[in-house]
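Lab channel / #folding
Pinned by the channel admin:
"Please post every new chain as: sequence first, then the structure tokens as a reply. Keep commentary short and put observations after the output so the thread stays searchable."

First post following the new format, from NK:
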Amino acid sequence: MSIVTLKKIMGLLIALLASNHAIAVDGLSVELGRGNATDTARIGAMWNFNQSWFTDGDWQVTGFWEATAGTWRGHSNTGGNHVITELGLTPVFRFQEKSPVGIAPYLEGGIGFHLIDLTYIYNNRRFGSAFQFGDQLGFGVRFGEKLQFDLGYRLQHLSNGGIKQPNQGINFSQIHFSYHF
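Reply from TO:
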């Protein structure tokens, strides 16, 4: 997939999110991170599952789909640093209180799919394919009068799962902020 195609898709996603008809988007997010001599920044949209599991006690598992668009910027001393454009789609599952009041802590995780326009970020970090799996674990809190704000930390690993070599993968530590409508 070419960088021009990914930029067109990202532009379409941004235009869709900015429109009044954003396909019932339940929230928007921004994420900043760093890992393996690479900085990352993403924007995203979230759609709630509107489903809960394990609801017998005071806690439950629920979640949302998260579609993201972003960039990775390499800054390795080995040279050959590049900027990668990325698109992702991840089902995120959350363990949280059923009826939170004030501040609501949570744990979350998910495994999604990502497309990148380049298969290398710097001289000695190569990914083998444009298709990547992205698994993430995180924690955070929801807060605000209607629990509309969300601030959390995520640890994310992306690799192609051995589909094609080399499969070096990359790890990111990320701060995640979102607003729920």
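NK: The chain has one helix and ten strands.
TO: also worth noting, The chain has one domain: 3-180.
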